[in-house]
Amino acid sequence: MANEQEHANMVVEHYHNNSNNKTITNKIGETDETERKLMDLYRQSVQESGVRIIQGDKLGVHHRIANFWQENPFKMLAIAAVPSVGLIFYGRSGAKHLQLSHKILQTRVIGQFAVISLMLGLMGFKEYMDRNGTFITQVEADRRVQRIEVARADFLARLEQAKRLQKEQHDILIHATAHKKNMLKNTTTTNNNNNNNSDKQQHHLLAQH
Question: Who's near 35: CB < 8 A, 6+ residues apart?
């Protein structure tokens, strides 16, 4: 779930930062054509995210086994190896002429070869699955596309909020600058008035003398 959400966020940010996909941020006035192209891009991103889409709403048993095999190769190795070694020992038990130590030794030698062969086969299949992708249903693919759309809506909301906060900070700065200028202007006017009054008083005193 976390990886899918991270993939959705990466897809949204990728198409937003790509100069050829600026329409992703056009929240207002988006056309149906733009929406369709965006959804096609989202579907393409899901298809290229390392999955193979199976039509329908359920995976076949072999698909589920292949996915489990890819995600848990060592569990698969244990599931296959333990019964194999047990069968090898059971086969050696039928040899009455062999002592128990010889049976165990032969079981270990043959078992090691069997486990190594199983491991090579399991890892080869895992590499094949890693290269070609995990199986998912068409319903799951559509759900991932919708998750990208939700991530996009959240991204647009955060972007809009950031713009609004930036505008508010800009308005506060302009208001503070204007207020500071008015304060300086009032101070200058007051000082000039005081100087004029002082000059008038001095002239009046000189006239009296």
Answer: none
